[in-house]
Specification:
By secondary structure, this protein is an alpha/beta fold. The chain contains 26 helices and 33 strands.
Length: 797
């Protein structure tokens, strides 16, 4: 059945009284995505391992925005995860220890440790420089010196019995001098003695040496006991001082076993290295005020005391609930963190204070949102993320060892952090299929696939939801107020993006772009609100910025460089319609399709296929066409002909089956000799029974032919033929609708090939007769006779 469409059928009119705007029903919830929202919410609430989420759909459909919103709505009700910090492991200095504290305690712990070291750097020197300490130390020294003197006195008395005197050296040593006539003699005097006197002296020297050895042993034991007593005194002073300031911190974190164990290690290390805190000013010239400052430490001691610092890498003190992080640069170092190095005098150095947290640390206990394209274009990012999700651990380690001047510098190996992160990957289904196909672990780790639709029903609920979104966007982004007529214009634009009269687009990013640009145009003209005029202007200007190729094609057609007829009749020649995409811009253009038939056995040859410029779907369409012709004309004799079908001046390849009906018309015209009206352009797929099937891009195709006709001048007889099943997909621009309304342009909807034949060739297609053949002088009758003549000619050869 042939039906000429009324102008009211060519688009969705949203400016009339049928569109009711109810501001009381505005909402800021996820719009038009019931299944996507359900899957996303379910995935976020499942806490089992592997239930990470892949959120798929077209760009600009709000996937990232609503993934973050849904995650935040759940995260706000969840427990705030622990803070993380690294400290020195005193047993393994090259393997910093990870401590976890309740949210907010990490910041406090860091401050507590800083305050502890500052206090100890003041109080320990004060304690060891006090008068009491000096008196006690002097008392111990004097006590043991007295005992040493008694040992020496006893040694002196004993040595006299063997005619030897005892002398002490400045370094605490002991030596003996012989006694002659009650007086000690020196070495020179000793040499002047007679041999008998020398022999007498030597006889007692062995006994004296034994006495000396015993005395020295007693003295060394006394020195050792004195040092031990002083060390014990110093240790007790240090223990009291350190304990006095450390005990409150230990009590504060007593419930955290790891922190408590660390504080015990700190205490032991400080006491073992108490001298780092003591300033021995030999000159005694130091300013007494400066002596009380915490930075007044021994040379290099300040740097050494940094080992007691706390490196707080994750601070959740200001976080309410679980973290939600959206990141657009998941590089390896950003994911797992890194250890920074410093160049000091040509040497690369690092320590635990130079450890930096990664996204996996910061998102622990919460949600991490990535774009699939970002993950897969950053080296090692996907493998790193996958390993972390499998092991529930993240290890900070460089991709390769740092080198400087040809020397490999060994780094530190921080303790791995246990994590629990739910990851949401946002992307197209292309990346989903890619990961599913090439990574065996993908479906084990991402068990939830939530799909966002690109369209929603044109219903009152969705209309009000969308308009509520529009109004909210204007308010939140400080745009001018939007008028109701502008909202209606925006609805029409939404329908056009969806390419269905009964649908609205869910690609709200595109709607927001139009709103922002309409606001800019309004402000440039000092308007007080966004009117429908500025919405239309924004839409048109957006197209003008990217339609350079459409203009070039139109100019080439206008200059007859690309040959398209819009008047007259031709045999075997027809105006087909195609859609072209250049980046984000889609436009339709007419294309000449020709068919040449003659005697032979080559059959129907697709020239595009022969030139390797035909896609598989187009090849399939050609096979359907052959099936249709065989069923129509080859019931009594073989389909014997040679036929060439060509898309003229097409150099970029052809695909799709939307021209299969168009090619059929050209072949039948060539066989029957019936000319085709060049004022009409055709699109439509077909099946082997001759039924016309729907195609894509019908709006753009009609507009493309209309623009060519308008450029040459509308005759009132020009128009397009489309599948009847595509009428609901028409969202034509206003000038096409107006031309149809005024009778300057026509759009016909057909259901079968025969409908198209009658429109294009101006005569009946022909009915099949009971005895075979078709009604006389019909198109099918003429085509069948031509094929019969071909068969006879070939048979006679």
């Amino acid at each position: 059945m042939i039906r000429e469409l009324d102008y009211k059928e060519l688009k969705k009119f949203c400016r009339n009284k049928d569109i009711v705007i109810d501001e009381s029903k505005y909402t800021n919830h996820l719009i038009g995505q019931p299944s996507g929202a359900e899957a996303l919410e379910f995935g976020l609430n499942v806490k089992s391992k592997g239930y990470n989420i892949y959120l798929g759909g077209l760009s600009a459909s709000g996937k990232t925005t609503f993934a973050e919103k849904f995650a935040r709505d759940i995260a706000i009700k969840e427990k705030t995860p622990d803070d993380m910090c690294y400290v020195l492991d005193f047993d393994k200095p090259n393997a910093p220890k990870l401590l976890k504290l309740k949210a907010g305690q990490g910041k406090e712990f860091k401050a507590d440790m800083e305050e502890l070291i500052n206090q100890l750097s003041i109080e320990i020197p004060k304690a060891f420089s006090s008068i009491e300490h000096s008196d006690d130390k002097e008392r111990i020294v004097k006590s043991y010196q007295k005992k040493k003197d008694e040992v020496l006195k006893e040694l002196t008395e004993s040595a006299k019995k063997f005619n030897f005197g005892v002398k002490t050296s400045g370094n605490g040593g002991i030596y003996f001098l012989p006694i002659i006539d009650g007086k000690t003699i020196n070495e020179e005097e000793y040499e002047e003695l007679s041999e008998e006197e020398k022999e007498e002296i030597n006889e007692g020297s062995d006994d004296v040496h034994e006495l000396a050895s015993s005395a020295m042993k007693q003295i060394r034991e006394l020195d050792k006991r004195a040092n031990t007593e002083i060390e014990n005194m110093d240790y007790n002073i240090g223990l009291f001082t350190v304990g006095h300031y450390l005990s409150p911190i230990q009590n504060k974190y007593i419930e955290n076993d790891n922190v408590s164990q660390y504080l015990l290690k700190v205490k032991e290390d400080i006491l073992d290295n108490i001298d780092l805190f003591i300033d021995d000013d030999e000159d005694g010239n130091e300013d007494p005020l400066s002596a009380m400052m915490p930075w007044n430490l021994k040379k290099n001691s300040k740097e050494i005391l940094e080992k007691y610092s706390v490196n707080l890498i994750v601070d959740n003190s200001k976080l309410n609930g679980a973290p939600v992080i959206v990141d657009y640069n998941p590089a390896y170092a950003n994911l797992v963190g890194e250890v920074e190095y410093e160049n000091e005098n040509g040497n690369l150095t690092t320590d635990f204070m130079k450890i930096k947290a990664g996204l996996l640390h910061k998102a622990n206990g919460g949600y991490l949102i990535f774009h699939a394209s970002d993950l897969l274009t950053n080296a090692f990012a996907w493998d790193t993320l996958k390993r972390a999700l499998i092991t529930n651990k993240v290890t900070i380690e460089p991709l390769k060892e740092y080198q400087f001047g040809g020397i490999t510098v060994a780094g530190i190996q921080p303790e791995a952090a246990e994590i629990n992160v739910k990851v949401i990957i946002v992307g197209s289904m292309y990346y989903y299929e890619l990961l599913k196909e090439y990574d065996d672990d993908f479906l084990k780790l991402f068990k939830i696939c939530a799909l966002f639709d690109y369209e929603m029903d044109f219903s009152e609920e969705n209309i009000n939801a969308m308009l509520g979104f529009v109004k909210g966007y204007c308010i939140n982004n400080n745009l001018l107020p939007i008028e109701k007529r502008a909202m209606c214009e925006l609805l029409e634009h939404s329908v056009r993006i969806a390419e269905r009269q009964d649908k609205l687009t869910t690609r709200f990013g595109l709607i927001c772009d139009v709103l922002s640009e309409a606001d800019a145009w309004a402000r440039l003209e000092n308007a007080e609100s966004i009117t429908d005029e500025y919405i239309i202007k924004a839409v048109n200007k957006r197209m003008e910025r990217v339609n350079i190729y459409a203009k070039k094609y139109s100019k080439m057609i206008s200059d007859n460089e690309i040959m398209i007829d819009t008047q007259g009749e031709e045999v075997g020649q027809i105006n087909g319609l195609c859609v072209m995409e250049m980046g984000d811009y889609t436009f339709g253009m007419p294309t000449r399709i020709t068919a040449s038939t003659y005697t032979g056995k080559a059959g129907i040859v697709n020239i595009e296929k022969e030139a390797e410029m035909s896609g598989s779907i187009h090849d399939k369409g050609m096979q359907v066409l052959i099936g249709y012709l065989g069923g129509k004309y080859a019931q009594k004799y073989p389909l014997t002909l040679s036929c060439r079908v060509c898309f003229e001046q097409s150099y970029n390849g052809v695909d799709g089956d939307s021209a299969s009906s168009t090619e059929t018309y050209a072949i039948i015209s060539s066989l029957s000799g019936c000319p085709i009206n060049q004022q009409l352009a055709v699109t439509g797929s077909m099946n082997q029974k001759g039924d016309i099937q729907p195609i894509g891009g019908v709006t753009y195709k009609i507009e493309g032919f209309f623009d060519v006709c308008k450029e040459r001048g509308l005759t009132g007889s020009q128009g397009c033929i489309i599948p009847a099943s595509n009428v609901k997909d028409l969202v034509l621009k206003d000038e096409v609708v107006e031309a149809v309304k005024e009778g300057k342009f026509h759009i016909y909807a057909i259901e079968t090939i025969d409908d198209g034949i009658e429109l294009l060739m101006g005569r009946k297609a022909g009915k099949k007769l009971s005895g075979g053949g078709y009604s006389k002088d019909s198109v099918h009758y003429l085509a069948a006779n031509k094929l019969k003549s071909y068969y006879k000619l070939v048979s006679e050869v």
